[in-house]
Design a protein that fits this description.
The complex is a heterodimer. By secondary structure, chain A is mainly alpha-helical. In chain A, about 70% of the residues lie in helices and about 0% in strands. Chain A has a domain of about 120 residues: Topoisomerase I, Chain A, domain 4. Chain B is mainly alpha-helical. The chains are: A mainly alpha, B mainly alpha. Chains A and B meet through helix 4, helix 5, helix 10, helix 11 and helix 16 of A and helix 1, helix 2 and helix 3 of B.
Chain lengths: ~350, ~200
């Protein structure tokens, strides 16, 4: 047995133990059935989350979201720390890079609408910077152009080329799309470093997610002429640009959906009834199923680690949604509609 | 104090009062016409309002469901961040308009928010639903205010008509009768006095 394999086996063993900490179906349902946010927090005490100290003000949902994100990032850190280098590098990128891209988008949005530095700082996901040196430096920049210029020399420097387009349209979409592209490009590059079998699992997740996101972007551009397919969809996998073009140009959206293969057809099915948000829940469920399938195939490989992190992210998203819904006083039926709780 | 106290029982005052009562009666007729028109307008408006409100409740329910779905699938922080990228806010201009003397506010949408960022599709779907009903909501608010002011004006007009019909006109008629009686009595007295004077001379 090689040293790398020994490392993987150790992480897999630790991961199996950590999977037991995830909330099960009954626990998640019990949380959804709480009468209000106080009862939700009380019920959360009975789970591995334990007692949560959070300010009970009008921002309680946002405060809880930060707590759940922190728990999720701690789980990633814990696993990444003990994962062999290449796998660890990939996992770090897959999650932290994504959060950093999200934070950069939030900084750009804040600067675009001239929000205060406090407002921007408060909107950020509480994670350590991944590629950028310091978020504060970006938050305190004079304007959006300066934020982008400060990214020179990093993986985000191609944003500078998009500044004229941003200025021409006075719109953020050129910069946000470029950030999506930077993330996709880097993930693709890091995937190549993984072993062939691990790469297959990751590809099935990354490609599936990118394909569905591309379709959602295409649907938003329905009816628009002269869509620059290359720049809007820089990365495509199972759904190519011709299929995406059909989503923009086809008069009957249902026809375009029916033209896709599984699993895409099932994931996009809710669009036919106008429930677009359900697509995202279906997407999460698809990721859950893909991770579970991969995990079932080999209980002692990288797929177990990835499955744990995918489950953790879904759990984080579920709890964030549940907490907000409890604050709003939504019924358990309304809450559970968009929550993925498939595990027992 | 009686209604006739302080009245000068003169022919000039009688003529002036008769002229005034004619004007008041004509005015009352106009007010009655206005009252009937306002009542008709109010009844029709209430039916329209009921229908519009029903439709609005459905549309609001749809928009709220879309927004709820967006929050549940993206989380509150991301929704708020994406919403922050919408640069322009709703800018309204409120001008006064008048129908049958009823002044009500008329709202003009000068500027609507502009979605220029790469909003998530669930959020842009919710935003579209909300934008669809914003103008509808403004029109409904304008219509509700118009209906409320018409109802107010109808109440005022009815009170005016009642006061004129039941108080002012009867009072004036009473005054006219009082003056006429007084003048008749005076002329009778005068006639008797003249006859007495004439009889004495003979």
């Amino acid at each position: 047995m090689t040293r790398a394999n020994l490392g993987t086996n150790y992480v897999v063993l630790r991961t199996h133990a950590r999977i037991a900490d995830l909330l099960n179906k009954q626990q998640m349902q019990r949380l959804a059935e709480a009468n209000d946010i106080n009862e939700f927090i009380e019920r959360l005490k009975e789970t591995p989350y334990g007692e949560i100290e959070v300010e009970h003000d009008d921002k309680i949902a946002l405060n809880l979201e930060k707590v759940f994100i922190k728990k999720f990032t701690d789980r990633i850190e814990e696993i990444v720390k003990i994962t062999p280098a290449k796998m660890g590098e990939f996992l770090h990128a897959y999650f932290d890079f994504r959060f950093e891209v999200l934070n950069l988008k939030r900084i750009l949005r804040g600067k675009f609408t001239e929000s205060s530095t406090e407002e921007i700082a408060e909107s950020l996901i509480p994670i350590d910077p991944y590629i950028v040196k310091d978020y504060d430096e970006l938050i305190n920049a004079k304007n959006l152009d300066e934020v982008v210029m400060k990214l020179n020399g990093t993986s985000y420097q191609t944003l500078i080329d998009k500044l004229p387009l941003y200025q021409e349209h006075d719109a953020l979409w050129p910069l946000e799309l470029e950030l999506n592209y930077i993330y996709a490009r880097n993930i693709l590059r890091l995937t190549e470093k993984l072993a062939a079998s691990d790469r297959r699992i990751v590809n099935s997740l990354v490609k599936y997610e990118t394909d569905v996101e591309n379709v959602l972007i295409a649907i938003k551009r329905r009816g628009k002429e002269d869509v620059d397919m290359e720049s809007i969809f820089p990365v495509t996998y199972g759904i190519d640009r011709d299929d995406l073009k059909a989503f923009i140009e086809e008069e009957n959206l249902n026809k375009a959906i029916d033209g896709l293969e599984e699993p895409y057809r099932s994931v996009l099915e809710p669009i036919k009834t106008g429930d677009i948000a359900l697509v995202r829940a279906m997407l999460r469920k698809g990721k859950y199923d893909a991770a579970t399938k991969a995990r079932a195939g080999n209980q002692f490989g990288f797929n177990v680690i990835l499955a744990f992190l995918v489950y953790s992210e879904i759990e984080k998203d579920n709890l964030v949604g549940l907490a907000w819904g409890e604050v709003q006083g939504l019924s358990p039926e309304q809450l559970l509609k968009y929550i993925v709780i498939p595990w027992d | 104090m009686s209604a006739t106290s302080g009245i000068r029982p003169t022919k000039g005052y009688l003529m002036e009062t008769k002229r005034r009562i004619q004007t008041i009666e004509r005015g009352t007729e106009f007010l009655k016409l206005k009252r009937d028109q306002l009542a008709k307008d109010l009844t029709e408006s209430l039916d329209v309002l009921k229908g519009r409100r029903g439709m609005m409740m459905n549309n609001l329910q749809e928009a709220y469901s879309a927004l709820t779905a967006a929050y549940l699938s993206l989380g509150p922080a991301e929704v708020q961040s994406q919403a922050r990228s919408i640069k322009n806010t709703l800018d309204l201009e409120i001008l006064p308009r008048s129908v049958m003397g009823v002044v009500y506010p008329s709202v003009r949408v000068k500027e609507t928010p502009e979605i220029s960022a790469e909003l998530d599709i669930t959020l842009s779907h919710a935003a579209e639903k909300v934008y669809e009903i914003i103008e509808e909501l403004i029109r409904l608010a304008e219509f509700e205010e118009r209906v409320s002011r018409i109802a107010e004006e109808l109440g005022t007009t009815s009170r005016k008509v009642n006061a004129l019909e039941n108080m002012v006109i009867p009072d004036m008629q009473h005054t006219i009768k009082f003056i006429e009686d007084k003048l008749d009595a005076e002329s009778m007295e005068e006639l008797v006095r003249m006859k007495l004077i004439g009889g004495t001379r003979q």
